[in-house]
Design a protein that fits this description.
By secondary structure, the chain is of the alpha/beta class. The chain has 6 helices and 5 strands, in the order E-H-E-H-E-H-E-H-E-H-H. It is found in: Cytoplasm.
Length: 165
């Protein structure tokens, strides 16, 4: 009899994927058999990259983990999506205390909606504590060197997208 695989969902906008996100994904792979990187499709928000572009960037950036990650997008309730995918956990990265209140509130609501899906908080590595997609996009838009904060493929696509080549 084959053992049940432990599956976790790592949700986010990933616009774009940062090295902080990659750090959380790689650490989650140390805990779970499979991690589904799930992009929330929000038609009310317009990102720099389309959902399909983000999925492609994530797949390319994490190619060495392709056998243990899945890249997907969803809309609706996260706990419903987790149940549909057979995931028992939601992974959330936290950078600073400021993240805690909103993350805790979301975790409690998800628990209220589905007690079988647990939320696991991973503290971002110190190197990435001040790294966020929005800060990286802003810095890149002014031509700053963000190469150490994102994968080479994301760095290249950001330069192309922002016309900073």
């Amino acid at each position: 009899m084959e053992a049940t695989k432990s599956i976790a969902i790592y949700p986010g906008s990933f616009d774009p994927l940062t090295n902080g996100h990659t750090d959380i994904i790689e650490r989650a792979l140390g805990i779970f058999d499979k991690v589904i990187v799930a992009i929330l499709h929000n038609p009310k928000k317009t990102g720099l990259f389309t959902v399909e572009e983000r999925k492609e960037l994530i797949r390319e950036s994490l190619a060495e983990h392709r056998d243990r990650i899945e890249v997907d997008s969803f809309d609706g309730l996260l706990v419903d999506y987790a149940e549909q995918k057979g995931a028992r956990a939601i992974v959330r990265g936290m950078r600073a205390m400021g993240d805690f209140e909103s993350e805790f509130q979301m975790a409690m609501m998800n628990r209220r909606l589905n007690r079988d899906v647990q939320t696991v908080f991973l503290i971002t590595g110190l190197r990435w504590i001040f790294t966020s997609s929005s800060v990286i996009k802003e810095a890149a838009s002014f031509g700053a060197d963000i190469s150490g904060m994102v994968s080479p493929v994301v760095h290249q696509r950001l330069k192309e997208k922002l016309g900073k080549e």
